[in-house]
Amino acid sequence: MSSGLVMWAWFYAPSRLPHAYNKWITSAAAVDARLINALRLCRNNQLQYGKDLGPDARVLEGMSQDYAFLGTFITLFFYGVCLARTRVGPLILGTSVAARQTIDSGLCTAVGCGLCGWSILIERASRRKDIGLFVVPRALATMLPRRYPLDKQWRETLVFAASTAVVFTAIQENPKRVRGVMGEVLKTVLVP
Q: 20, 34, 46, 145 - which has most CB atoms within 10 Å?
């Protein structure tokens, strides 16, 4: 009961808790502050379902979509792991010690990793492109060495120069094609 009262106070009346305790709960919970704020607004009748409040409602919608993506990502990963370990893996490979070792030595993780990528379909098409542009280079980087010998560093320089040229050309021809913070900075610097 006391834990419930403390959590209720943390959500709706954090000033009633000692500062250090409030800070500890906040760091342990790792909840997005925007969600806590939205819950407080609902509690105080400042945010009501079905009532358009302008930008705040859009933020709440974006947050909900982000959490749906993240929740689906995690769910599909663990579903894939459990599916490979308990259903499909033993059905295909058997239940011997060697088969279980094969399943647990990477196969179940590979199935989970393969399934979690499908969560991208929850996002809007424009957001999928942005996420793809963010994730693909990092995925490719896992297949390349982290450090190059000095005689081969020209490759990295060449790729950087080519990608910078593509972005600069895009901003010169159609500034709307480069979005985000980088797009705004480049527009102020490069577009006359």
A: 34
Q: What 3-state class would DSSP assign to 179?
A: coil
Distance CA 154, CA 150 (A): 8
Tell me the per-residue pLDDT of 12-42, one tens digit each, with 9 for 90 and over.
788 877 888 778 778 777 777 887 787 788 7
Domain annotation covers residue 167: yes
Overall number of domains in the chain: 1
CA atoms within 13 A on the CB side of 77: 10
| Helices of type H across the chain | 2-12, 19-29, 33-43, 55-82, 89-93, 97-102, 108-116, 125-141, 154-173, 180-190
Structural domain boundaries, residue 164: 149-192
Residue 76 corresponds to which tokens in the numbers above? 């599909």
CA–CA separation, 146 and 125 (whole Å): 32
Tell whether 32 is covered by a domain. Answer: no
| Gap between the Cα atoms of 60 and 50, Å rounded | 13
Query: 113 is written with which tokens?
Result: 């990793």
Q: What is the pTM of this model?
A: 0.55
The answer as to whether 169 is a domain residue is yes
Residue 166 lies in a domain: yes
